[in-house]
Amino acid sequence: MKMLLRSCTFTVAAMMAIALPARATLPIDTWQLDNGARVYFVENRALPMIDVSVDFPAGSGRDTKATSGLAGMTLGVMRLGAGGLSESQIAERLADVGAQLGSRFDADRAGYSLRTLSSATEREQALELLAKVLQSPTFPAAVLEREKARQVAGLREAATKPESIAERAFATALYREHPYGLRSSGEVDTVSKLTVDQLKTFYADHYYANRAIVAIIGDLSRDEADAIAHRLTDKLPRASNGVPPLAPVLPLKASVARDIEHPASQSHILMGAPGLKRNDPDYFPLFVGNYILGGGGFASRLVEEVRQKRGLAYSSYSFFAPYAELGPFQIGLQTRKEQAQEALGVVRETLKRYVDDGPTEQELEAAKQNLVGGFPLRIDSNRKIHDYLAIIGFYNLPLDYLDRFVANVEAVTVDQVRDAFRRRVHPDLMVTVVVGGSTKVQ
């Protein structure tokens, strides 16, 4: 699903540059269906293709500790038997028309996406298959047992890998009892116990028409997009209430250190804390500021201090992952076991200095230039625009979010970055996980 056609990239970029010089993207149209589903649509006749997705608030954040993995398994099995068609029949009919059916799953969202030609025959067959997957999955028992076995095998393999061990320990320490701390793929003991009835119940409890976000871009009119949105959601039930809110993520009250033994030659280090929400007012100061700290590759301070000056790691990074509730702020690197404590000390000192002092004007200007210069690559294809369209819809972001992206980046000041980091990032209140360290984490 990550592949992009060169012709698509060139044509869409050219069309935007020629036809709409004052906009970052093509205009977004949005409306709500009678069944409550919200639709976000961009018409683009440059290619004879359509991208459509339907998302629901049914991510892993809706799991419980006892049912960890249920949300992801429900989504995965939906496409493996639906509307009287078997898994192989669905795959064959998609292949017949050259359509691509994909899924999207994270802590907040669960849904399916479809890419198909816009010609009538291909479009109708592809949309009919997506409609069946979304509205009439059958959850075959034999398929579930097979998928459970496959998932359990993957979880057992992951339990041997230092990077997986680190991520698991980090999420658990960061989120404690919050469902964001649950592994999206579940645990061996919980996945092994999943039943068809549990999948059917989860589906019935979370896949409602009036909670659906439909995103569509491509070679079709608004009326055609409206008909597609109805076709994909009209047979879904309508919830009698709104989306149940997720519990708030609580801030850390004390630092947490986890040292986990492992025979790997490299130590895997993760450090961080709860970060920010998708609609956070500090989003752009933290986004731009993090580019300078550790998000800008070789242009970042962490790489400069850890790799360039001291040769302690091939790479290091930091990022904010925004969710409906506080997503993680995370720093990561790998280094030789005997260097783990030294590398960790450099990271901590670099972070503390950055939070205390903020970036320089020169660093900020360079970061803005890189981010603004790279922005066209974020929206140079229908698929990339479609991904943003789905995010805008799901998190109820402003419709001009992409059009104002560059201006919002350019408006960030040194004082704003310093202020946001001082209020939101506390170096003395962090989760630190080291897998394969030679000494205990201090």
Report on this model:
The protein has 442 residues and is of the alpha+beta class. The chain folds into two domains: 24-233, Cytochrome Bc1 Complex, Chain A, domain 1 (2-Layer Sandwich); 256-435, Cytochrome Bc1 Complex, Chain A, domain 1 (2-Layer Sandwich), CATH 3.30.830. The chain is built from 16 helices and 13 strands. The protein has helices at 6-19, 70-78, 87-96, 120-135, 141-158, 162-175, 188-192, 196-206, 222-233, 283-295, 301-308, 340-357, 361-378, 382-394, 405-410, 414-424, and strands at residues 29-32, 38-43, 49-56, 81-82, 85-86, 100-105, 110-117, 213-218, 256-260, 266-274, 316-320, 328-336, 431-435. The strands form three sheets. A six-stranded mixed β-sheet has the order 1-2-8-3-7-6, sandwiched between helices. Strands 9-13-10-12-11 form a five-stranded mixed β-sheet, sandwiched between helices. A two-stranded antiparallel ribbon has the order 4-5. Strand 1 and strand 2 form a beta hairpin. The radius of gyration is 23 Å and the shape is globular. Residues 1-22 have low confidence and may be disordered.
Helix and strand layout, with pairings?
Layout: H1 6-19, E1 29-32, E2 38-43, E3 49-56, H2 70-78, E4 81-82, E5 85-86, H3 87-96, E6 100-105, E7 110-117, H4 120-135, H5 141-158, H6 162-175, H7 188-192, H8 196-206, E8 213-218, H9 222-233, E9 256-260, E10 266-274, H10 283-295, H11 301-308, E11 316-320, E12 328-336, H12 340-357, H13 361-378, H14 382-394, H15 405-410, H16 414-424, E13 431-435
Parallel strand pairs: 2-8, 9-13
Antiparallel strand pairs: 1-2, 3-7, 3-8, 4-5, 6-7, 10-12, 10-13, 11-12
Helix pairs in contact: 2-8, 3-4, 4-9, 10-13, 10-16, 11-12
